[in-house]
User: Fold this.
Amino acid sequence: MPGGDVFVNPPLHEIDPADLMTAAQAAEWLHVKPGTNRVGVHRGKLQPVDTGDSGPRLYHRLALAHAEKNAWDNGANRPLRGGRKTARAA
Assistant:
């Protein structure tokens, strides 16, 4: 997720619970490794939804989709979808 993009969640009262998913569900949905979302959180690009409880971290589908599109647009390696768009210098 290069650049200064931060993918924010809508306010909690506007979120449909069906649009929330755990890191494992998000990874399966996006066909990425589960650690990919943790990297986004660590880099400050993606934030779990603050539900006010101590349950699992939940991520909003739209924020995840925006983060994944940004990663893809910036050359992320996604083998299931054709791999890297441009060759990296060795």
